[in-house]
Here is the input.
Amino acid sequence: MLDLRPVPFDHPDALRLIAEVQAFYRERYGDEDLTPLDPSEFAAPRGFFLVGYVDGTPVASGGWRARDAGEDPELRDGDAELKRMYVSAAHRGRGYARLVLAELERTAAAAGRVRTVLETGTKQPEALALYASEGYEPMSTFGIYRGEPDSRCFAKLLRARVP
Here is the structure.
């Protein structure tokens, strides 16, 4: 059972998983994700970060940060950019990524965000399949990976929060 807990972006367990995902990116792409991130961007009310635990061991992570029109030509007011979605290799194939994604979408909608956006790459077929199966639609590339041939960006409108 995956126990999802909100944590600060710079929590030791989050940092460990972020280091793992960066190593994964180096393996697949030859470099880390170089998107500038500030830990404060993932703090409420304009952000959120979580770690998923199995028997007390951190095995999954993900977060979102508020993004709005004017920050990038492809972004809109009310966007929540997903970052650092990751499941440790030994725990993949158990549906944990879907659970993390659902919680990120839920918390973004609860915070008033209306759309989730993300960037991934062609060398991550697992991520591409996950996002397609969860209703994410292709959008123009944004951020520092705009125009990169291996970059793929996706968006999904969030359901309005029911009181």
